[in-house]
Every structure is written in C-alpha cells, then in structure tokens.
Automatic annotation (TrEMBL):
This is ACT domain-containing protein. PROSITE patterns: ACT, HOMOSER_DHGENASE. Pathway: Amino-acid biosynthesis; L-lysine biosynthesis via DAP pathway; (S)-tetrahydrodipicolinate from L-aspartate: step 1/4; Amino-acid biosynthesis; L-methionine biosynthesis via de novo pathway; L-homoserine from L-aspartate: step 3/3; Amino-acid biosynthesis; L-threonine biosynthesis; L-threonine from L-aspartate: step 3/5; Amino-acid biosynthesis; L-threonine biosynthesis; L-threonine from L-aspartate: step 1/5. Gene3D superfamilies: Acetylglutamate kinase-like, Dihydrodipicolinate Reductase, domain 2, NAD(P)-binding Rossmann-like Domain, VC0802-like. The lineage of its organism: Eukaryota, Viridiplantae, Streptophyta, Embryophyta, Tracheophyta.
C-alpha cells in the first residue's frame, strides 16, 4: 500500500518482499540469527532485476534457509531496517517512532529527563539491556560492523532532530556530568545470594552455581562476587527465582549440610538501577557521585556490579525505592549543581514580594550564574500549591486560587524532599509563626536547607536554639536568617565576618525597628505622638495593631539574636524592655480602641521630647548588646544631634559595632530596615548565598 501510494504521488519506487532477501536461522530463546552471507547474495540478485532509486521493503518478516516464511521476533521491524542498512552499506538508518528521541531516563518516572543528542553503540546497547525503550540490543549489531549511524526520530514531530547512535560521539565538555549519558531500571527481580567460607579458593564453584541456573532456563541479569570469594550474588527475574533457588539447594545439598556453604538466600522485590556512559572509566568520581546521590536520598544498596570496561554501574535495591533512586541519581548528574528546589511557606506580603523577585530574576540567574531556582511548592495557612516540575511564577496567584489543595505542612515538606531529588532543597519560611519555626530542626535533619526572616526560632528558648545550631553544623545543611535583624541590611553577615576574622565584639547598639525609627524621626516640633503613630499606621509602617511595634518585643528579639551570635547565652526574658505602650492601654481590646485613647498621653510624650530638645538631644528607641557585661536591653535613649543615630530619616535602621578593632570609631551599618521589598531582598540574598556555597560562580 505504501509503495502504491508513493508511486501515485509521482516518485519512482520499488517494492521489496524481504522474505525473498533476508535469511535467518532460529537461535533459541525465541530469537533468530541473520545469515548475512546468504542474504547479501539474494540482495545482489534482487538488484540485478533492474535499478531502484527508492525501495519500500517489508519489515518484520524473513525466511528460513528452506525458504519457509518466518518473523524476526520481538522488535523485528527495527531489526529489519538495521539488517538491510548493513547489507546496502547505508550512510544512515533512521528509525521513525512516536518519541522525539532517546531520553536520559524514563520520562514517565523522571519529569526532568532530557532528549540525548547522541549515544554510542555501546551506550545504546547497555540502555536497551537494562530496560530502556531505545532499541532492542540485537538491532544495533548489524550496523556496528560498518559504523552506520542509527537516528531515532519522531514521525509526529519531524522538526525534532532526534538521537543519533554511532560509534563514538563527541563528548561536548568531557566533565563528570557529561560522561554519564543515561539511567535505566529493571523491575520485578529477585537477588540470589550464595554464601559460605567453603567457596574461597575452590575451583568450579561459580561454574556449578550458574550451571544450575542454566539447567532451569533462568536468565541472569546481573552478577556480583566478593573479592574474598566468600559469596556470589546475582539477580534473576522474580518469576524464575523459585526454580533457581530449588536447583541451587539440590546442587549444593551436601555443601550446605557440611557447612561449606552457609546459605542460599533469596531477596524478593528488587530492582536494578544502571548508570550508563562510555567515558565513565576515564572520569574520576562517577561512582562516588552516584552513591552520594543515593545516600542523600536514603536509598539502601543491596548489591553492586561494575565491569572493568565501566560502560555501566549497576546497583540492586528495593523495588519500592527504585523510582526515588532513579530521580535522585538523574538529578545529580543532569541538573545544575546549583539547581535549588524551593518551597515557600507564607505567601503573605513578604512571601509574595519574594516570589515576584524570583520571577523577575530567574532567567538572568540561570543564564549568567547557572543557578536554577525551581519553586516546587507554595503554602499558606489554608491552601497550598504543589508542582512536580516547578511553578510558573507568572501565574502562581491564579493557580493558588484554582489548583490549590488544603494546606498540610507535613505533606508540603514531603513533596519537596521525598518526591523530587534535586541536588539541593531549601524551605523559605516567610511567616512570623512560632509553630512553623518549630519545624526547622526536623527540616535540617532531613537535609533541607532553611532560610527565613522569621525571628521566632533564633529568639526562642535557648536550649532549642542551641540544639538547632548544633544540628545545622553537624548535618552540613545551611541555615540562613540575615533578614531576621536588618531586613535587607547585612547585619548578621557583618557580625560573623568580624568574629570569624578574630575580632572581639564589645558592644552592639542600634535602632532596629523601621517603624519606631520612622516615628521618632518625625516626632519633632509641635507634632503630637498620636499624630505620628497614626501617620505611620496609615503609611503601612506599623502592624495592624501598633502596639505590636510599640511594645518593643520585636526589638528585643533582634537583640537576643545578635547576643547569641556574639556568644552570649541569654533568654528573651533576660532582656529588660521599655514598652512604649502605657500600661492602661495594654488592655484595650482592639487597635481602634487603643488609637482612640492614645492622644490622652500626648502631653507626657511632649514633655519627654521637650526635655531632650532643651539639652540639644533627640529621642531614639534602641537595642543594646553589652557583650563585655553579658547583658542586653531595649530602651528609649537620648542622643546629641550630631550623633549618627540622630541623623536618620524615614524608616532607616542603624547599627554600630564596637569591637577591639573598631573601638574608637564603631563600624556602622545603615539603611532601610523595614518594608516588604528590602526584607524579601534580604531573603533572596540568602538564597543566592546558599547557591554560592553550593558551587555557583561568584
């Protein structure tokens, strides 16, 4: 039919019945072996009939030497193409399929699988053997002799270039990642382990084992033997293991009874994961990288095999772990070392600002710094949005409304850490929630990095804080919290830099609240305190209830964080705090009630301000860490008008570090200390710092 249709279109072609050309011999195991010599003779006779520009040949069928029609068995059509290609010495054999080429892993199991541009014959053969849907191994054999490339292309997508399988494709960059071309798996296997001290040095033991296996017609998929010769293990299909075990017990009945063999053990429900690559033998670190990826995914390896040719590294593991292991290994080799799977907790003001910043910078970071940020989940208190490949940050708000599911923090963390084995996972807590902060320990223990502007963990109970920091150091995970103290200002990093270079911190003093900085910067002249607080509230500088800012608790938390960073072991209760909320207003049931009653205290505030002005001073609300005397405090202080603290504007923060090196002239950090943009920017900076620690270029 195809030949007729092509002729009707005006293209000359000839139809070939391959039963007249291809001669095959049965070879057992439902396979056939081509008789190339006889087939070549018959092909020459066929060409002698007349010229043929285009040949339409039947696939899958052939004949026996007695001219009895037969088939080429499994994948016979591809096999036909390869055989005919070798007979005519073709420049190339193209196999048209329904996929764009050969994937680096099964795309049904690994969403990050990529189309490979090239494979060597050996790599394709190894992948086929280990279950990859590439080509049957025998399809490759005919073309290898004449170095004829095979190209796998998609008949439904002719614009895709496909995958070329050839003798030795060029390795684009020769690095560790490029030398591992693909991963494949085989499921439904059992591992048989024959073990005993009597095996060592006894000739013929391995022969006897595999002779028994051959006698029952079982297929050995993988073999591994200890160098001490005390054990031999091998994998066979699960459906064949019962007969294999029975045969081995019969064959070694006497050795088992005498104790020369200790056991013939069967481990059911196993799978094989194979890493395939032609250049693995000449590239150091491949095995180490593979097993490191499996270890980080908490995968237990039952057996290992690697030939000296090192075309593949094969591991046997539990079948239930196979997909996780495949994803873990693939992500380690095929994704950037600085690919980060990001989970955002709290899409409130800071969280959504951070998401917008990530959206705007993602492409630039990937192109310029090879940093690939994938937001795999966003969760609020009521709903969450999860993705297997990364959320489209241009549509996250809409999807959080239309595709969200009920919020479940445990499920959210499991999704990030267990289902997706990116090289690195980071949870970003953009809440101010104590209950969320209480999970940091568990997240770090699971190997998840943590970044947060949430002050609750570092200012909470000292014992919990010390436990968290000890785990963080021991687990080689990173815990960054720059934005907890100065929003986008480099306060924590400056302090650490001083300490790590051997400086001694004597005192830290600063205006840590952008809200209170704004209030006292504007509390001048004839303005009343209540008017300034109202203005700050309307401008969005305060919390919905201004008492949350005026109480001083937030500043006290920042003081505790800096005190602990400086080596002091203080509790929040150790910090005396001057609250700016009159005691009689602390019991107000609402923010509105508080704001209505606040003007009654304007005269008291005016008196305090006037006293300061009379002395040429201003009022500033500050936090102090007195490292020498091992204490901290939060209070309202007066400063001369030429003091740096008196010269602020807007909502700026300012922090002065007095140290052994900066004793006469403190080191000062100043800048905006409040607002969603700068706070989110501080968190974003921590994400990039994490990426640099993980290997991103500086």
């Amino acid at each position: 039919m195809l030949s007729y249709a092509i002729k009707k279109s005006g293209t000359p072609c000839s139809w070939m019945d391959t039963r007249e050309i291809l001669v095959v011999n049965p070879s057992g195991s439902n396979q056939v072996d081509p008789d190339y010599l006889e087939s070549e003779k018959r092909l020459e006779k066929w060409f002698a009939r007349g010229p043929a520009e285009t040949i339409i040949a039947t696939g899958f069928i052939a004949s026996t030497p007695d001219n009895i029609p037969t088939t080429l068995k499994r994948d016979g059509s591809d096999f036909s193409a390869a055989i005919i290609g070798s007979l005519v010495k073709a420049r190339q054999v193209t196999i048209w399929t329904d996929v764009d080429g050969v994937f680096s892993a099964d795309p049904r199991k690994v969403s990050e699988a990529v189309i490979l541009s090239t494979l060597s014959y050996q790599e394709a053969w190894e992948m086929s053997y280990f279950g990859a849907n590439v080509l049957h191994p025998r399809t490759i054999i005919p073309v290898m002799k004449y170095n004829i490339p095979i190209v796998i292309r998609n008949i439904f997508n002719t614009s895709a270039p496909g995958t070329m399988i050839c003798q030795q494709p060029a390795n684009e960059n020769g690095d560790l990642d490029a030398c591992v071309k693909a991963f494949a798996t085989i499921d439904k296997l059992a591992l048989v382990n024959v073990e005993g001290t009597g095996m060592a040095g006894v000739p013929g033991t391995a022969s006897a084992i595999f002779g028994a296996v051959k006698d029952v017609g079982a297929n050995v998929v993988m073999i591994s033997q200890a160098s001490s010769e005390h054990s031999v293990c091998f994998a066979v299909p699960e459906k064949e293991v019962a007969s294999v075990s029975a045969a081995l017990h019969v064959r070694f009945r006497e050795a088992l009874a005498a104790g020369r063999l200790s056991k013939v053990e069967v481990i059911h429900n196993c799978s094989i994961l194979a890493a395939v690559g032609l250049r693995m033998a000449s590239t150091p670190g491949v095995s180490a990288t593979l097993f490191d990826a499996l270890a980080k995914a908490n995968i237990n390896v039952r057996a290992i095999a690697q030939g000296c040719s090192e075309y593949n590294i094969t591991v046997v593991l539990k079948q239930e772990d196979c997909v996780r292991a495949l994803r873990a290994a693939h992500s380690r080799f095929f994704l950037s070392k600085t690919t980060l799977a990001v989970g955002i907790v709290g899409p409130g003001l800071i969280g959504r600002t951070l998401l917008n910043q990530l959206k705007d910078q993602a492409a630039v970071l990937k192109e310029n710094m090879n940093i690939d940020l994938r937001v795999m989940g966003i969760t609020g208190s009521r709903t969450m949005l999860l993705s297997d490949i990364g959320i489209d940050l241009t549509q996250w708000k809409e999807k959080l409304q239309t595709e969200a599911e009920p919020a479940d923090l445990d499920k959210f963390v499991h999704h990030l850490s267990e289902n997706h084995f990116f090289p690195n996972r980071v949870l970003v807590d953009c809440t101010a929630d104590t209950s969320v902060a209480s999970h940091y320990y568990d997240w770090l223990k699971r190997g998840i990095h943590v970044i947060t502007p949430n002050k609750k963990a570092n200012s909470g109970p000292l014992e919990r804080y010390l436990k968290l920091r000890t785990l963080q150091r021991a687990s080689y995970t990173h815990y960054f919290y720059e934005a907890t103290v100065g929003a986008g200002l480099p306060i924590i990093s400056t302090l650490r830099g001083l300490l790590e270079t051997g400086d001694k911190i004597l005192r830290i003093e600063g205006i840590f609240s952008g809200t209170l900085s704004y209030i006292f910067n504007n509390f001048e002249g004839a303005r009343t305190f209540s008017d300034v607080v109202t203005e700050a509230k309307e401008a969005g500088y305060t919390e919905p209830d201004p008492r949350d800012d005026l109480s001083g608790t937030d500043v006290a938390r920042k003081v505790i964080i800096l005190a602990r960073e400086s080596g002091l072991r203080l509790e929040l209760s150790n910090i005396p705090v001057r609250s700016l909320v009159p005691e009689s207003l602390r019991s107000c049931t609402s923010a509105d009630e508080y704001m209505q009653k606040l003007p009654s205290f304007d005269q008291d505030w005016a008196s305090e301000r006037n006293d300061a002005e009379a002395a040429g001073e201003v009022l500033r609300y500050v936090g102090v860490v007195d490292v020498v005397n091992k204490k901290g405090q939060v209070e309202l202080r007066r400063y001369k008008r030429d003091h740096p603290f008196a010269q602020l504007s807007g909502s700026d923060n300012i922090i002065a570090f007095t140290t052994s090196r900066y004793k006469e002239q403190p080191l000062i950090v100043r800048g905006p200390g409040a607002g969603a943009e700068v706070t989110a920017g501080g968190v974003f900076s921590d994400i990039l710092r994490l990426a640099s620690y993980l290997g991103a270029p500086s």
